[in-house]
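Entry type: protein chain
Record version: 2
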Amino acid sequence: MVRNRKSGNAQPKPANNNESRDSSSGRSVSTQGNNDYSWLSGVLRFTTVWKSRLGFMSLLVAIYVGALGYLETRVNTPFDDKNKVVQETGLAIPERYWGSYRPNVYFGMKTREPQSPVFGMMWYNVGLRSQKEIRHWCDQGDNLPTYGWLRHDGVSFGEQLISDPPHTIMTSFIKTMGGEHGGHWTARINVTAKNSKKSNLMLVWYAALDESLYPVDPEEIPESRLWMEDGGLQGFTPELLNFRINFTVLTGKVLNSAYSEAHAPGLQLLKETYYSLLRERKHPTFGRVAFLGPDHQLHDKEKNINFLPIQMLIETPFVMDLAYTTEDYPAPPLQGKEYTKALEEKKKGFDEEFEKKFGLSEKGYPEDDIAIARAAMSNMLGGVGYFYGSGRVQSPYTREPVPYWRAPLYTAVPSRSFFPRGFLWDEGFHGLLIGRWSPDIQMDIAAHWMDLINVEGWIPREQILGAEALARVPKEFVVQNNAAANPPMLLIQLARLVKTRPHLFEPGMPHRATLGRMFTRLQAWYNWFQTTQKGEEPTAYRWRGREDDGMQLNPKSLSSGLDDYPRASHPSDIERHVDLRCWMYAAADSLATIARAIKKDPSKFEATKEQLGDEDLLNELHWSTATQTYADYGMHTDGVRFVRTMPKHPGEPAKLVRGVTVPPQPKLVTSAFGYISLFPMLLRVLTPESENLGKILENLDKPGLLWSPFGLRSLSKSSPLYMKRNTEHDPPYWRGQIWININYLALSSLKYYANAPGPHMDRARELHSRLKNNVVRNILSEYRRTGYLWEQYSGEDGRGSGCKPFSGWTALVTLIMAEEY
């Protein structure tokens, strides 16, 4: 109780144990209740604090889980799914609806639709033993003396030669536009034997449906179907409606014919399914032969007929027309003499157009050389495919690989036999040639690639879409990691198209609108490089993805495109890669060019170009005053060699691993003089007046370094790793062989410096002339000798090596001959 201290008569009550003094107010406060309930108030205070803490922790966990989920899904989230670059495809572009869009097979046709039926050809010699050698997929193991397109315009027709002794097979097709479903086409198969002798061959034509694209729900029965009727192959799909293929034999005989209606587990197993349908029967002339027959048709009605092969035992010389028609376009298909006449007109028109665009006859090349140049470009166009599916990707935030979104890809491929799928930096080089022939096709291809960019600004460097493509890829290369880049050559190629064909991008032109839709994606791709591939030093860049497994003499940098080219021996974060820095200079320059063309602000890109073009900064990071060369930087030693380890357990094989005899140190990798050292010149980072440009040109034609009579080697003969294996099982790849894409860049830059006023004009001009002659002469010579363009060429004797045919960037020989850079 509180006393009124102003009352003179009041006396303070003696304090007891239940009273305390509030010294600040003079008040006495009772504590009886505190003694009774103090434990409860303590619990309440404790609970309130921990509720707050637990709530905050729960919030943090929720934010973390949400952020992790967000980061997990970024790798397979499209950049902008509502505003795609490709706005017209399929029947919206009828002239490119049908095509030879199956580059992985020797001959096949399909549409640019995900659920297109596919048509194709197989063949083999008659006999039980030879049926195991069925030709279907383009395969190096078939050891054909040559095959490839002699002429192909990318749109309306193509003519191909296949040599499989003793037979020569000519395949061709012509499209007839009209109707609402892509019009008609006719394919001709012409088989002859050596010395025009009569011989026999088993020929198979088939139709198949990709069941992997059908609805998963069994209640949703796919409408597409195939059947035989009145001697013709018939089918129906929702896109094409009813269609039919008629077979007309013009020359020769069909000694026996049969067909089967079957179910194939997938397009990747058509040959195996066909083989399983064969049954041995006795033929009066050929003895025991395996035939198809009605008794081997599909009996399991629960399975759909998705594969219909038609087998023909033929006698040569043999010519057959296969005419595809639809019910909505009543015009008769081209056949017989009309087809022959139309094909000759197509060939003549193609040759005239080729000369108009490349001028090789005017430049003095003989017809034999021009024919090879035509074939090179035709194989590039004939290697354009249409793929659909989803790849497998992974990021640091996903425990396991996840599927990318399903998407189409219209693209050229590097090699029909070995790489029948899309590769990002290859496509930039492909586009240089395709864009010269048809900007429409190239812009369509580039648009499809740009629609594969994800929300991070990343594009998977290797596109493995569909069952057939997946079946050709080793398991270890299937998953694409979002830390891995690939040189932005496609961006550079687009800018070159803008520079060389500016009228195509004027206001109101279709390609300008397409480029405008691409622009935000190109920026995102460029920004992804700038944020993910930066080095530790200002203006330095580093390819991610190098891993030291202890087995490689020099760990690969697959993302650079140069695979086993020697870098710093021990991967680390301090690395600086001169080629990537130069790619970023060229990317900034290219984006500035594109921005100006579509009236966007180029200043940001111009500023980066100016900074990366500063030769003093470049030299500070990459120039060796000791060797007078440009080089990478990192933890490096040349003291590496293979050491054979003893097996730990009985029965295990001994392994070759890397042994280090001299510890690595941070330094420039000057011992790896080669393509990397040329990049400041290759991508025109150096000014025409540059003293260091003069040093590069001075070294360029030294035979002991990169120069050879066949082109520039990828690695100097003086390098410790010149033509050395990288592992026990990996032969050298970019360690001395001649690659035509880099030789093209070298010739392009030499031509540029030869025409740019400066002290090195004459030297650049002379080197350009000599290098061009070396490269062209060797490619043409090897094509005549082997029947193929090759992936790479030997720096010792010029012989083709790697895979064949490689009608990807090796086909740039056509542009080199024309001096179209």
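Comment: The mean pLDDT is 90.
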